[in-house]
Design goal:
The protein is α/β, with parallel strands linked by helices and 587 residues long. The chain has four domains: 2-198, Rossmann fold (3-Layer(aba) Sandwich), CATH 3.40.50.300; 206-381, 3-Layer(aba) Sandwich (Rossmann fold), CATH 3.40.50; 404-499, Arc Repressor Mutant, subunit A (Orthogonal Bundle); 517-586, DNA polymerase, domain 1, CATH 1.10.150. The protein is 44% helix and 13% strand. The strands form four sheets. A seven-stranded parallel beta sheet has the order 3-4-2-5-6-1-7, sandwiched between helices.
Amino acid sequence: MLEEAKKLLQSYFGYEAFRTGQEQAISQVFEGHNSICVMPTGGGKSMCYQIPALVMEGTTIVISPLISLMKDQVDALTAAGIPAAYINSSLGFEEVRETLHNVQQGTVKLLYIAPERLDSQIFLDELQGVHVPLIAVDEAHCISQWGHDFRPSYRLISRMMELFPNNPTVLALTATATPQVRDDICRILGIDKEHTVMTGFERANLTFSVVRGQDRERFVKDYVEKNKKEAGIIYAATRKTVDSVYEMLLKKGIKAAKYHAGMPDEERKIGQERFLNDEVTVMVATNAFGMGIDKSNIRYVIHYQLPKNMESYYQEAGRAGRDGLPSECIVLYASQDVQTQRFLIDQAQDQSRIPGELVKLQGMIDYCHTENCLQQFIIYYFGDTDAEPCGRCGNCLDERESLDVTKDVQMVLSCVVRMGQKFGKMLTAQVLTGSRNKKVIEFGFDKLSTYGILKHQSTKEVSNLMEFMISQDLLAVEQGAYPTIYVPDGGRDVLLGKRQVLRKGAVVTKQLSENDPLFEELRKVRKELADEAGVPPFVIFSDKTLQDMCLRRPQTPASFLEVNGVGANKLEKYGDAFLEAIRSYEK
């Protein structure tokens, strides 16, 4: 069976060998063991059930909570010549009936369904009599109440397993599961822990960094401008922030789309399609976007505001570089985001989950303040304590010069004390810069000795300095309806001259890739073919495959077949167009 699986990997998907963990997971499926497979996003989890589905008799059922992912995967499988279908709420009654008829006739190798379908006894009755060798449970962390994305309908999977007399093998797959969540998955799905496949949580092609105490708007404008040909996602915690970042990018002439729950369904759908089809390069969104987005050529993910926990962050950041090419994941940290996330956590319907969510939020705050390796911090969080420093994250490679800002910090601290430690960051910055704001005058702060002592700086610059001071525990925030700042012990030491304060220079944005004219030509060919076929460009070929074409410059069908990611089916469909483009370029 395994030999046949390897041949199918080459002929359908164009890959010479399985990735780490894939062969072990596939072997366990062939041996009939219920298994759990924990692989990072982009690690190739889908291959662990798609290949067995091709080898085994019958229809493999894939349970996935993500409508967009189902469509992307079915499009990609169909493009590779594999009969696949999905059933979810986006289909009409007739389409569902036709799909079920095809499944009952045995002409569908992979059927993707939403977990909510398991609520319907009528639907389950339709599946009776279908030969199902394998049930794949994607995003399996949704089954655990300890997971960050708990979906009660996932608990119905065990009910479905009883439908089939031949006891199908179960394969649970997830990218982000702490030890507690893994235990839950195994218990509910009847998986023996010894049948766990874990390839580690590290994503070797991703570079993580945290930018603190800088002007976020300026950073994003500069970053996107330098990488305007690359696809990226900018996440924000609130709809209001999504709207403002989106407007800012449009004014800069950047092709952007936005996505949040406050938009009409049709508008969201159009924005998502434009991003998937490379018609816009940047998607600005809340965390409502991206679950199951299979777009492989996302080169960067920027979190404009603090994410709510490490599981969400790693999943969202992990949407970068699914094709294995170098990509960046950046968090822009500001202390007021903590208040925003606390507010969102307090809105939870299940109040019993709030204490646990606050603990997880603190883990995210710690990540933003650690001076150790960021990738190592993430991997430790998920229970792998053997990880070494990555040597490539923002902390590992930080060579910025440190400047002595003790004097400016003392001025800020002195002003906070003179204002009675009862006011917010913004008003304090206005006093320090000599603003004639109505509130400043009303409170008589224009009479303080610290009034205007930093007037050579803008309010924003002073505000950013205070952000830096908060991140270094030189200033502290009293949370409440109106957060106020006060001087903690660390700040007192600086005021008394017992401690020097060094601040690193601003993080400088950089261009992610060199311009390659042939790569741009091949991108155009891919876009034309994708538009003709009505699928996103990455379904035709990934950026990694295009880069390999640039490297190899194939001239014949046989040499084109050697390109990474080109199988026989895709050679037949698209080979001529790409070979012609390469020959024209060579001339």
